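Annual report, structural modelling task.

Input specification for the flavin-adenine dinucleotide complex:
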Amino acid sequence: MTELKHYYAPTSLDQAVECLKDGDVTILAGGTDLTPQSQAGRIKFKHTLMNIRHIPQLSGITLEGDEIRIGALATITEIMEHPLVKQHLPVLVEACDHFASDQIRNAGTIGGNICNASPAGDTLIPLLVLDARVELASMPEDKLYRHSMPLSTFFVGPGKTRKSLCELVTGVRIPVPAANHVARFYKLGTRPALDISTISIGVAGCLNGGVLSQVRVAFGAVAPTPVRAEQTEQALEGKPLDAATIEKAAAIARDEVHPIDDVRASAWYRKEMIHNITKRILGHVAQA
Amino acid sequence: MNTVAEKKHRVIEPDSLIGKRIRKMDAPEKASGRTRYIHDINLSGQLHGKILRSARIHALIKSIDTSAARALPGVHVVITAADIPDQRPIGVAKDHFPLKVGRVRSQRDEIAAVAAESEEIAEAALKLIKVEYEDLPVIGDPEDAIKPGAVLIHPEPHGADGTHMHLKQGMSIAHKGKPDNIAMRFDYSHGDVVKGEAESDVVIEDTFKLHYVTHCCMGVSGMIAEFDASGNVLMYSNTQVPFLHKREFAEYLNIDPARIRIIQPPIGGGFGSKLDIYPFEVICLYLARAAKRPVKMLFTREEEFLASPTRQPVLLTLRSGCKKDGTLTFRQVHTLHDNGAYTSWGATTPFVMMQTFSSLYRVPHCDYHTAAVYTNNPYAGSFRGYGNLQATFAIEQHMDMLAQSIGMDPLEFRMKNAQDAGEVTGQGMSFKSCGFKDCIRTAAQRSDFSHKFGENQANQKAPGTVKRGIGMASMLHVGGGAKIYPSDGCGTILKMDDFANVTLITGASEIGQGSETVLSQLVCEELGLPISAVTVVNNDTAITPWDVGVHASRTTFIAGNSAIGAAKKAKAKILAVAAKKFEIAEDYLDLRGGFVIKADSGEAVIELSKLLRNLHFQDKAELVMTTFYYEPPSVHQDKGFKGDVSAAYAWGTQVVEVEVDTETGIVKLIKVTGAHDVGRVLNRLGIEGQIEGGVVMGQGYAFTEDLMIENGRMKNPNFRDYKLVTAPEIPEMDIAFIESMDGEGPQGAKGVGEAPAICMAAAAANAIANATGVRLFELPFTPEKVYRALHGKTPKLYWKPWKAE
Ligand SMILES: Cc1cc2nc3c(=O)[nH]c(=O)nc-3n(C[C@H](O)[C@H](O)[C@H](O)COP(=O)(O)OP(=O)(O)OC[C@H]3O[C@@H](n4cnc5c(N)ncnc54)[C@H](O)[C@@H]3O)c2cc1C
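The model returned the following structure:
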């Protein structure tokens, strides 16, 4: 039986972070990770279950200066269908389009996907290649404190992040990409729908006369966290995207990852796929 | 207006329900969420039962302490084997007790059970039960089970002095143990394979490996048991075999079978999974008996994976040969079946497998040996296709390979060896109706097989990473019941009310296959009534007549003939009454559109409901009520497994088209073209659904589903990691029906329930080979498996043929 004693549904950010102060709180957003994990006994509920779904500051998708802000409570469906995202961040739409099923997409939130910190979390790869920052809120003293950090430094291990127990993720911020920005996402699984990624790959950069710059490459399900592949990025940075560069980058990518064997695939296969699909995606980018 | 005169001249046009698209009778209830499954039924005073399963794979139970569980408020009963001294062994080989005694042999093993006021309390009580184990070595691989000196899964009991206690002959394995790990064996042969091999120009031998999958019924297993004040038992159960199981349950409870009544609420999926009695059912009865309250037991989804039967995993080495002219010469098959810790129907799948080996194609010499061996793995049960998916996987791949080795077109090779009507096979099956060649021809034509096959083959080495492939496989399955018990019959009671509505009381259970609708159709066809005139009663052993259960694709054929028999009797009675009343000879009368009519002109004589009321409300009142029992003209096999076991045989060919991404190993199923000899289409909508569902089930077996067992432990008992096919992967389907009009079948129909799942894996393997030149011998074709094989990373599978002595 659970230790759960209280249920709390704050209606403002202040109330929420205040409640988080003692750290003995389980945060509930869409519940699509929380519910199966608690059923399977993999997580234990803390003293208080806090439903954050009634906090207005956590929702919405807006253009703020040269950034797009996606509130933590934005569901996968909302993100997929939002005009701002469709226009500026098609790679995120692509990832959402391979995310679970309609039912899960209607409930699951981006904040939940980030905080669940699964190495296979599907929005995390596009967010990484888009240079997203995570917004956090807490109440260290008596005042609301907000700050942000790059998503690339946020993850520590499976289910583990730099977020403290007293912090709430309020949203993510993504710089609006330049006109010549290209980005691609690929998810490999046993079946096209309702599957956890065997591996996933995100590639982004600015394409100028066949040369890729500000290259970002990220891989899912090959390490304890979603990872940026810096050596692969370097192999591509400022180079013309020709066959030789692509082959070299794909080979580096294969060596750069250290996946494990699990029920979904062997480490060997994952490395092979990192190579083959990185190559395929870069080929597509070169033709873009 | 002279309405009387007008009525007199009313002509009822001939019409038939056969072959029409008729909505399943239970569809509106299901679609609107109104169906009351076992899960929705709650009896007043009911308790909730839960089972404690083993924490170990193979171990001695040193002690069980239930005191804390018993003390938990809300707990009514806690039982272990020690509380049920009269436990009887259950299962096909009577090799286990519902509650395990002294030893656990698999992850699913039942150690204790609780009945409590809520599921939560029952769960909490389970956690309070302390069990001490002493681990034993685990056999996780059937090949290890037959090695000399292998640990025995069912050792003979030892006396206090350590010596074996050779118990009385005739005692069950659960009592006296088994001195080896061989649960069951089958040895079949016809002809002389040595001679056949000598006559061969080409001989090939390969090993095939078939994996674990499970039924994945959307409705998890469950039942409710209640004892009344006189000790009579009422069970709400989803069994597929109510009458035979009634008798078995009575034995386990030590009571007269007459005291057991089984009500079958609508089922959330069967597919063969409810063909055996499982420990949970007997345990639920024990709990209800002890609690003197109704007890409801429902599996969780994880439990459904852990404690349901699986499809029989098989290791198979096939040796076959042919002559240069394409004549098959011989076939020799050895298989090793992982029986798991206990014996259920999976062990008996060779009955069906050998039909495919011996008789799908004309094989003059055939030899087949199998042993089902005990391991600490889950145990296999019956599952749609019953071994035929496994057998066909091997046979149909060899058909392609043999054709290739003599440079013959695979289609031509098959046509040359395919059976025809009128043949009696080496196994003694007599093919009265046989549309096999039509199936092959039709499926090939509709899919443009030959052209695509050649084109794809030529394209194997061409540049490009995505390769197209086309493959074919065919099947033979019983289509007129299967005489595996002394009887293969089914009874019907039919009654008509004074509004010409029919109540059809049949022994045949509805397990979602659409039997209610088809049986109603057959009755209406005889009585000239609309389908809405029928109410079907089919779910209460206290009401329905005998039937041997839903299996072997038998229901439409057997129960259909039974229903027709009862309807014919009713019709004869009605016509006799009408003949007398209107002074027209019976032969000149018929039933049509709710009227008695003149057979030649269709002219209405009297409304049927009116005639029935006349009959009812007269001095010598009479009712139209009939009964019929149908027993098919099939025979029990002899000791050598020979004999015409079914009254009819069903055939089918499926052509599968795939796209193989050679850089990822992902195989996309593009299209399935099927041609099935179903005798005759009765309900077109129903049969299309049956075929489409079967194709998807076969697709899951071929590509995505894999119940992973490692050293006896299930690694993926959940739908996240056990991958069923989802909507986007379902291919385009083009299904044709070959109507061979079986002489014994109801309106010419044959059974089709299992058929559509059988060919898929074999055809898919052939399609992948056609696309890439690489052949896969092991299921399922997951991206990684395919990728490995394409890149030469799959060592050639070989299992040396072995035969139990
Ligand atoms: C059938 C199924 C299929 C799935 N398929 C996919 C898939 O294809 N791809 C994929 O990536 N994921 C998948 N998931 C996982 C899950 O749906 C996603 O991770 C989803 O985004 C989680 O969001 P949620 O709002 O439901 O999170 P919740 O379950 O509510 O929370 C997840 C975790 O994050 C914490 N949390 C949530 N919001 C915040 C916040 N704002 N601040 C701080 N902590 C927070 C919670 O305490 C919890 O620990 C699937 C899940 C299911 C059940």
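Chain B has a mean pLDDT of 96.
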